[in-house]
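#structure-requests
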Amino acid sequence: MNPKRALLGCSIFLATLCCLGGYGTYRWLRVDFDRAADDLPRQRSLARAEGIPTEPEDLKPAIPVPDSENAAPWIRKLGERRWKKGMVRVTELWDKLPGGDQRVNKTKLNQYLKENPNLLDVCDHAYRSKGCDFKRDWALGPNLVFREFTSIKNAARALAAVAEAKAEKGTFQDRKGRF
């Protein structure tokens, strides 16, 4: 048998097999997606019955949070600090020890707290607030940006470092009775 002819035959066979496999996958997924799309109204009604939000309007708080009891302005204040060269980053508050353990670096923690003098007060006000509503435009869907997330995460890391340093000293409260 001619090797060129055999190679051509194998190529045609593989191309046909790929086309049939691709078409079969397409038909199978299309049927599956069609079933899912047909079932969507029923699934939405079941979700609503369970109290799961399905529309942007459902994400608005049922009971509005008054501005005087809202933690959102306090949390936004956490993000007002801008890092400048020479300032301590929150990730530098722990020293890595052999074996994967970490220990609070008290020198850097004290410097971090001096650079962020209102951190504990802002966190305390946010904690004592009765509710939190950032008044987001939920209609933006996946384009909605949560700018406060990084600030909250960094504040939590800093508070964890403060709490660990206080636990090492054996003092669990500061002058204002926190921790």
